[in-house]
Amino acid sequence: MKRVKLERKVLNENDEIAARLRERFREHRVLCLNLISAPGSGKTALLERTLAGFDPEDRVAVLTGDIQTDNDAARLRRYGFPVKQITTGGTCHLDARMIERALADWPPGGFDVLFIENVGNLVCPASYDLGENAKIVLLSVTEGDDKPLKYPSVFFKSSLMVVTKLDLLPHVPFDLPKAEKNARRINPEIEIRKLSVVSGEGMLEWRSWIEKQRERVVQQTLASVI
Amino acid sequence: MHEVGIANAILEAVSMEARRNGHGLPCRVGVRIGELAAVDPDALRFAFEALTRDTALARLTLVIEACPLRHRCCHCGEAFAVSDFLLECPRCGSTSTECIGGDELELSYWEVEDEARETGTESTQ
Q1: How many CB atoms lie within 10 A of CB B113?
Q2: Domain spans, chain A
Q3: Distance (Å, rounded) from C-alpha A130 to C-alpha A133?
Q4: Which of A45, A47, A186, A215 is the most exposed place for a label (fewest CB within 10 A)?
């Protein structure tokens, strides 16, 4: 029996494409945010409200992933920004190749912020690097406050947790401090924003988080030039 | 539910390595899977067996090494296995710790049978 050492990532191919995407985003100062949550946590609704808050001249684009239908893209296109639906046809997550293909006919520097709405799934999308600047996990108050403990991987890999549907909090047994504590138990560094797209509460804080990331992207590019 | 994709990526990597090295058919492949890798070992084994059945790689065995979540204390340097997501340092009690393992999804090795077995002659093993 002969043993050969391998020492490489299982998803090496995905990671190579993701690295290419990341380099392309860096070069063109694009902030890329990968939104992940269970189905029905409010990714599309958050994006709708977020797009509505941008000026028409802002350079924002969206890739939205679903197993079937382009319903989400139709919803998001109403705000006037470029939106492309990625229909995975059964695959439960987006991978870097899908992103690269979807971006192929868009000019690489054609936007400053790219939102990727992942397939509704709290497990598999965590394994796939899409070249994003940050993964954002959404947790709605109609879910369990113990979700970070049940699905630790995605909370571990996300930079930000957005608690959604905050307007429903008085009507559900969701323990908000407990949910925050659980998320920080998995990932002490995770940032947290809480909002409702219905009442608008917390939207400013969410928007300023995005702006902070945009500044960071621009500064990093400047630093690399100097 | 993405374990089929993961199994496929493992098989592609092993096939590619086998072709490149010309060592013959691999009989065992080792992977390291962290607690936080979001990969279920049983589902991965099931997918692996389904994908290799009745193929040239039917005899290939998947060996999974589970990697627990590990942190290192930023204060005293103690490295420790984290259980139940309690991140405090067991030595000095500091809560400032960094993750040093637990999200692995890596191929660690593959093994090929020796030449005698490959050519069909009796093995001395």
Answers
A1: 18
A2: 12-225
A3: 9
A4: A215
Cβ count within 10 A of residue A216: 13
Minimum CA–CA partner of B10 in chain A: A10
CATH number of B3-68+101-112: 3.30.2320.50
State the pairing for strand pair A134-140/A31-36: parallel
Q: How far apart are CA A28 and CA A30, in angstroms?
A: 5
Residue written as token pair 């092993």: B14
Tell me which chain B residue has its CA closest to the CA of residue A151: B38
pLDDT for A89 beyond 50: yes
Q: pLDDT by residue (tens digit) across B103-121?
A: 999 999 999 876 554 444 4
* Interface pTM, i.e. ipTM: 0.75
Continuous segment of H or E residues that includes residue A89: none
B70 Cβ contact partners less than 8 Å away, ≥ 6 residues apart: B79, B80, B81, B82, B99, B100, B101, B102
Domain ranges of chain B: 3-68+101-112
pLDDT tens readout for residues A18-63: 999 999 999 999 999 999 999 999 999 999 999 999 999 999 999 9
Min distance B54 CA to chain A CA atoms (Å): 23
Hunting for tokens 């000026």 — which residue is that?
A55
Under an 8 A CB cutoff, do A123 and B125 touch?
Answer: no
Give the homologous superfamily in CATH for domain A12-225: P-loop containing nucleotide triphosphate hydrolases (3.40.50.300)
According to the model, what pLDDT value does residue B25 have? 81
Radius of gyration of chain A (CA): 18
Q: Which of A210, A207, A220 is nearest to A28 (CA)?
A: A220
**A7, A11, A152 member nearest B36 (Cβ):** A152
Residues 44-83 of B with CB under 8 A from A: none
Tell me if chain A has a CB within 8 Å of the CB of B111.
Answer: yes
Chain B residues with beta carbon closer than 8 angstroms to that of A147:
none
Q: Do B112 and A2 touch (CB under 8 A)?
A: yes
Could A124 and B106 be called an inter-chain contact, meaning their C-beta atoms sit closer than 8 Å?
A: no
